[in-house]
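G., the chain you wanted modeled:
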Amino acid sequence: MKADTITKDYISDRDIFSDVFNYYIYGGQQIITPEQLEERDPKEIALPYGADGAAVPVQKFRDVQKLCAVMTDGKLEYVIYGAEAQASIHNAMAVRNNLYDALEYAGQVSEAAKSHRKTMQKKKEQKQESGEESTEDGKKTPDSQEFLSGFWNDDRLIPSVTVTIYFGADEWTGPLSLLEMMEVTDPKVKVCLNDYKLHVIAPAQMSDEEIGKLQSSLREVLLFIKYSKNKEELERILRENGERFKEVERRAVDVIEVITNTQLNYEEREGKVDMCQAIREMRMEAERKGEIRGEMRGEIRGEIRGERRGEKKGELKKAQEAARNFYNLGIEIEKIAQGLGYAVETVKSWVGLLPEKP
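Predicted structure as tokens:
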């Protein structure tokens, strides 16, 4: 499976999702519970007008979006939370998330207008059925501004907060705001620009203490990713957090494997994986493969050396036979030695003029 698919599925779980926002907004305090989260359709649709006045559908998709209802000072407040999973850095993420939030607000305005129209139509039908002529029924009648916008004066938008989780071992180097994507030197122009800040969780830029504020398996995922390129530090993290790494959720292990390109051998027990044992097995397997490769390389080298020795013996035998043939034809020893590339004394030993060297 692709990294984007696995990470999106992972953060869509309510336990992981609530953990993300409890960390980012409340510093790890358990304010948002999984039970307070209501699933929302992450599909956003906008209908901007084209040059000819026609409506042009534009469809954008968030990774995960949920509605949260929290009691604050005795009052029930709603917040829409959106999470974006990134396996790689996206330099235009500020624009992308800004668009998601803007579409969310546009959708709320559209829904408010639709709701008001529906209510007024129902009210009108009830009056017609009863034959009532009076327009006064104790309910508010919108003024011209409210009627045109569809959004009444006492209507309120539900705030939308979007956080990007970067599942990469490197630091996030992309722009963290809209203004960072612009080059504006005129202060009078700059003050007129509305900025949008990107909220990012990036393990490489978090201390171990910060990652420790996470309560779900996301803690182990981010720790492993953070030190995945440093063998010594990874061993330290596994050792210091042994109890938690011995019981890591299978879905978290899937994220670790696909992001760090690590192939682990493990036994799954009740949906949990002992990462410490899996790492040990992986290293033992690597060592075994290394020993096999070493043995194979030794055998190949031996075969090559043997072939070379055989080649040299064959060449020597041919040179000796040629020397004897040339000598029997009456050619001088010095010329034979020069032609074959051997010492005169060596050639003499071959033709029997000197004792052959052992």
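Residues 53 and 226 are 51 Å apart (CA to CA).

Shout if anything looks off.
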